[in-house]
Amino acid sequence: MNLILLGLPGAGKGTQAASIVDEYGVPHISTGDMFREAIKSETELGKEANSYIEKGELVPDEVTNGIVKERLEENDVKENGFLLDGYPRTLNQAEVLNENLSSAGLEVDGVIYIKVDTDVLMERLTGRIICADCGATYHKLFNPPKVEDTCGQCGGKEFYQREDDKPETVKRRIEINESLTNDLLNYYSDPDLIITVNGLGTPDEVFKEVKEKIDKLKASL
Hints:
It is a single chain. With about 220 residues, the protein is an alpha/beta fold. The chain has 9 helices and 8 strands. The chain has one domain (about 1-115, about 165-220): Rossmann fold (3-Layer(aba) Sandwich). Helices cover about 50% and strands about 15% of the residues. The chain has a 5-stranded parallel beta sheet with strand order 2-3-1-4-8, sandwiched between helices. Helix 1 (about 15-25) packs across helix 9. The longest helix has 21 residues, at about 165-185. It is globular and about 60 Å long. The model has no long low-confidence stretch (mean pLDDT about 90).
C-alpha cells in the first residue's frame, strides 16, 4: 500500500504513523528522518539540505522533492509500499510526487487525514510548561504537576513556556498548516482516496478507526 498521512500540528500523526508501520510493515518515510539520514550519509542533497538547516532556514521544495524521490527508489518501498509523513506539505510537492510516482509506475492508494478541531489543537499544543529549575516537562491538562505549581522532580515553583508553545505562535502555526492541508485535501479530492479519521479519541481509539479504514482500502486494491 502507498499511503500519505495528513493532519494539523497536534493531531497525533506521529503516534498513528508508528502504529500503522507496526501493523502493516510499510516503510515510514518522514521528511525529518530523511533529512537526518541524507545529512549523515553526506549525499549531495543531504549537504544541500544541511546548508539551509544550519542557518535555520526552510529547505526549498526542490531539495525536499529530490530527497523524497531518492527514498522512494529504494528496494523496501518497491516491495512493501510506503507511508509518507510530513510530505507532501505543499501543492508543488504533491504535483512533483505525482510525477515521480507515475514515472515509477506507482500511485497513491490512500490519503489518511486525522481530523481534529483547531480549538482542541490549541488546547493540546499550548498546554506544555517546563520547570525553570530542572527542565522537567508537564502539560497543564494532560500531565500537570501532582502538587499544583510544584515540580515533582525538583520541587521548583517557577515554570515557563517555550516560544513555540505560546498561544499566538501556535495559532499562527495552525493557520499556516491548515491552509496548506486544505490545498492538499482539494488536490487529493477523490472520495475513494481520502480516508478521514476522527482524531479526538485516545491513541488506541483513533488507531482502531484508522485500521478499520485501511483494512477496507486494502481489501479493495
